[in-house]
């Protein structure tokens, strides 16, 4: 499998986000190489096409808000609630108490994220401050603003605004009080309760709905390209929303089945077909979704180098186990302490297995995944029955 043989020790997308750079088998990726120039074209929906010139980093700054007439693009939409607001750097400095460490929420490939408070609107926000090392961040900043300005769905994180002042680039999002899914699955601090089965299925179904919106309901449809647990943010009641659209690509149109592009994404989540050929399809996202679903079920990371060989890559570990139902109870997250519906587990694993199939055309379409997960999420597992003595359980059934 293409992904399993990649070098690298973390599932995090680093500043060097281009997986193909790390991939020693690059020579087997004709598209990744020959299509490099098409990657230089940044196409976002109906927005204009920007040809990225091969220029020095400072000049790259010119591929920015001004050139894209971003303000115009955004304000074309009459709806005030969809419009991304332009903030001054001063406003965002004030909102975060000068980016003080108390407000620090986490960091990723683009830079640090801080909690902030906007006095004008009485609103808590998350402010992502882009790290200026590397060209990719600038391009992704523009894609993020343009993409999120076009979309609106209860399962997609809302972009409130941005700041593009001097060489500062910041993104202002709605604040998601429960943080990322990653924080609720792994390395839980003492006292933090693990997610129960029902919540896991609710999160999976919500994330699938967000993806369905991008794939099916949006016109033109979008391939997300960066689906992973750290990009699923959680609101009150564990309501999930997809975040980070910096890698999003407009999907193939007409008779085309794929978009050719450099391989980008996060190690462990990237579909093997995309990794090998650079041909991006909607099914690349379905693969990544399958990995997330597997993480939710098993409590194992997509890539975990702390595990013994053979168990480090989640999909490589799970695939042979899918063949026999007898293995299923060994696959489930031990933190669930046996509190899951056996039938529900089988069904959830069956969906995950379909999503991570090697052949992209064998993977289901997102709407089928949504339908199946909606059903699973609606089948509430009664924790009171299983966590009590058997006599009590019998009493419940009468
Ligand atoms: N809107 C938000 N509300 C609350 N917390 C957030 C928000 N956005 C990000 N965070 C926090 O900041 C952390 C870092 O997010 P960020 O997207 O920069 O990195 P990442 O998702 O871990 O990696 P990548 O750069 O590959 O996306 C998240 O894990 C999350 O805990
Ligand atoms: Mg992220």
UniProtKB/TrEMBL annotation:
InterPro entries: Kinase-like_dom_sf, Prot_kinase_dom, Protein_kinase_ATP_BS, Ser-Thr/Tyr_kinase_cat_dom, Ser/Thr_kinase_AS. It comes from the Eukaryota. Residues 1-43 are annotated as: Disordered. Residues 9-27 have a biased composition (Low complexity). Belongs to the protein kinase superfamily. Keywords: ATP-binding, Cell membrane, Kinase, Lipoprotein, Membrane, Nucleotide-binding, Serine/threonine-protein kinase, Transferase. Residues 99-376 form the Protein kinase domain. Gene3D superfamilies: Phosphorylase Kinase, domain 1 (3.30.200.20), Transferase(Phosphotransferase) domain 1 (1.10.510.10). It is a lipid-anchor. ATP binds at residue 128. This is Protein kinase domain-containing protein. SMART domains: S_TKc. It is found in: Cell membrane.
């Amino acid at each position: 499998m293409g992904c399993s043989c990649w070098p690298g020790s973390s599932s995090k997308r680093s500043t060097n986000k281009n997986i193909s750079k790390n991939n020693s088998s690059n020579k087997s990726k004709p598209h990744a190489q020959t299509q490099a120039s098409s990657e230089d074209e940044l196409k976002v929906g109906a927005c204009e096409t920007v040809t990225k010139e091969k220029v020095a980093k400072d000049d790259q700054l010119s591929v920015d808000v001004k050139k894209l007439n971003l303000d115009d693009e955004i304000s074309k939409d009459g709806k005030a609630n969809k419009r991304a607001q332009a903030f001054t750097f001063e406003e965002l400095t004030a909102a975060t108490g000068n980016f003080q460490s108390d407000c620090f929420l986490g960091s990723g490939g683009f830079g640090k994220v801080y909690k902030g408070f906007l006095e004008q609107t009485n609103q808590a926000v998350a402010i992502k401050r882009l790290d200026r090392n590397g060209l990719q961040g600038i391009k992704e900043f523009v894609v993020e603003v343009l993409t999120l300005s076009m979309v609106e769905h209860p399962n997609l994180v809302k972009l409130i605004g941005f700041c593009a002042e001097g060489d500062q680039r910041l993104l202002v999002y709605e604040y998601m009080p429960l943080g990322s899914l990653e924080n609720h699955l792994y390395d839980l601090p003492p006292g933090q309760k693990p997610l129960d089965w029902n919540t896991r299925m609710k999160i999976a179904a919500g994330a699938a709905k967000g993806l369905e919106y991008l794939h099916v309901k949006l016109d033109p449809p979008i391939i997300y390209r960066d689906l992973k647990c750290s990009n699923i943010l959680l609101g009150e009641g564990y309501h999930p929303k997809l975040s980070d659209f910096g890698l999003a690509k407009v999907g193939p149109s007409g008779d085309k089945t794929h978009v050719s592009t450099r391989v980008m994404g996060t190690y462990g989540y990237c579909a093997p077909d995309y990794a090998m050929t650079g041909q991006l399809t909607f099914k690349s996202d379905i693969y990544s979704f399958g990995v997330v679903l597997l993480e939710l079920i098993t409590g194992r990371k997509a890539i975990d180098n702390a595990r013994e060989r053979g168990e480090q890559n989640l999909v490589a570990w799970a695939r042979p186990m899918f063949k026999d139902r007898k293995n299923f109870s060994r696959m489930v997250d031990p933190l669930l302490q046996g509190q899951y519906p056996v039938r529900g587990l089988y069904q959830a694993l069956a969906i995950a297995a379909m999503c991570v199939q090697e052949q992209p055309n064998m993977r289901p379409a997102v709407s089928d995944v949504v339908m199946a997960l909606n059903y699973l999420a609606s089948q509430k597992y009664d924790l009171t029955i299983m966590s009590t003595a058997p006599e009590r359980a019998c009493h419940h059934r009468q």
